[in-house]
Amino acid sequence: MVTSEFSILHHYDTIFTEGVFQVGNAALANVFRSLSAPGPVRVLVLFERQLLAFYPALPGEITSYCGHYPDVLLLAAPPVPVDGGEAAKDMAVVMEMCRLFLQARMCRQSCLVMVGGGALLDAAGFAAAIFHRGIRPVRIPTTALAQADSGVGVKNAVNAFGQKNLLGTFAPPLAVLNDSRFLRTLPPRQIAEAAAEAVKVAMIKDADFFAFLQERAMAIMAGDAAAQQVMVRRSAELHVRHIATNGDPFEWGSARPLDFGHWAAHKLEMLSANRLSHGVAVGMGLLIDTQYAVLSGMLPEAVFQALKELLAAFQLPFCRAPLEQRDRFGRRDVFAGLEEFREHLGGRLHITLPTAIGQKIEVTEIDGERMEQAIATVVAECGEGQPTSNQA
Fold first, then answer.
1. How confident is the model over 118-159, as pLDDT tens digits?
2. How many CB atoms are located within 10 Å of the residue 139 CB?
3. How far lies 385's CA from each of 153, 276, 322, 376, in Å?
4. Domain 13-185 adopts which CATH fold?
């Protein structure tokens, strides 16, 4: 028998900055400088096409920035616009990105800079992870949701066979740069998307953060930039800290507390053909699992009411239609999300439930009748409108 044992140290910074492509801001250049490469690093930049509506000068800014730091950066090609949104999370899109990498002669010493929302970062990050068995990615999230949650982690994935994030990899980025400038042009509904994930992590990890969100929800939705930045930064910090310190960054185990509310959320997105946005689906998932905790005697009803009121303050347009879909046996289709989540975890079901604001427990069994009661309660809280289109 030959035993192989080795460890690899991963390190990446989540950098909070303003005007990441302004030539006087060396934050991005310093990321490449830290590699101590013998010459400039070959870089390809993909940016979300939708950004051009608000930042028409963005390609020129990127080109000028790279030209200002010729000792550390060499553009492999002009910045490439690609479509974002949930439609980007498709293997055909990933293959097209790989073709772009090939045309740009990207190698394992090259770096991909990804500028866009969480769906684009997922798809581009997956493409980077499989091209030449991995080229180094730098993430520049442009939505509040990506800056607060998905963009600061180590996962990327695309949807396949009707399941959310079925195909993907763990690939830590070289760095994440959260540019607060991008938050200024976001509509309130996209701020609410990030708020759902912020509420999620506050609910299971930080009671003080939950209280801050209760106090500042109206200001956040009214465009208070300082409050928005605090929400995004604290949410990002809590997510990154969990990844770095929980002892299971690549999720070899089953417990995934950061997926609180997500077994239902992912299924609801798929049931709505992605017309239900991720943040809205997460908010609905939080309500379902919190109400289940109440019915299980783990949590006072007052906590469910506090959560419901906070999510309402963030104006998330909950829709009952995906929850009302049923199979030919009359069972709610969303229940299939539990089995899909179990398979995604690797065999044993682990569901995170709150036991108090800022505290949680993992359960490995779900009572179907009790969960049906919880879902029925949430259905009564939801509107009858059609699902909103996914812009996260």
1. 999 999 999 999 999 999 999 999 999 999 998 998 999 999
2. 29
3. 33, 11, 11, 17
4. Rossmann fold (3.40.50)
